[in-house]
Task: structure prediction
Amino acid sequence: MKKLFITSLFFLVLLLAACGNNDTNKEETEGETKSDTFTYDSETGPIEVPTDPQRVITLTNGPNALALDANIVGIDDWTKMNPLFQERLDGVEVVTEENLEKIIELDPDLIIAGSHMNNIDKLNEIAPTVVFTWGKLDYLDQQLEIGKLLNKEKEAKEWIEDFKSRAASTGETIKAKIGEDATVSVIESGNKEFYVFGNNYARGTEILYQAMGLKMPEKVEELALESGIYTFSTELLPEFAGDYVIFSKNPDVDNSFLETDLWKNIPAVKNGQVYEINTKASTYSDPITLDTLLDFFESSFLQK
Result:
């Protein structure tokens, strides 16, 4: 009887050990199917990138990545200076593609760069480096691509659909108030010149002209639509001003023209139809900037 009990106990131990090994093998198999990397189809070809990047350096497209809560450890100086992003970027280092030592120090697992930048091959030796060519994608497709790269395509798509819906609805409401044929110019001050923009040069142009469907003056359409930007001198301000003007004010340049009769006699100025935005906070077309400007345009045009 004692011998039978010992034999039974021996087989029970073997059975439990086998079950344990099966569970371990199952866990290992499941773990192996959850890869730490995936292949992203970049504009320069397929590249292995982290599935869940923890230390991202954005030499370009920082705001797009920031909108998707990327774990950014290094960013370009222009984005770092942007008033919209400063709080979100507290503690994030400013880097350039030239400062390779600093980039190595930050130990990135993913780098996002512009195709025009130097040292791309060297950056690739530090971490997988994905490049984007400025202007190759429109502002919504660019956000979608950043979403794909960060393994957050679903979040990017959801924002795109929501933004398009909100902007189209707001645009219809604005046109109902100001009239279908009312024109809108986006003008920015420089040191000795001015700039007027087409429909894809940030400063809210994508919202106003693409998403909302508002009209630009004929002269703006003729000279700035294709190129995206047109430079002109002070005396031509009245010719480029629409019924409404979005004035992108650069605080670092001479804006004394605002006190001149030339400016004050422009119909949009006399009618109180000039809405001022900060140049430094409006030079991107990422979700954070677009949502901020969409709210601003809605409250300005509709006097909310």
Summary: DSSP finds 13 helices and twelve strands in the chain. The mean pLDDT is 91. The two ends are 91 Å apart (CA to CA). The chain has two domains: 37-151, 169-301.
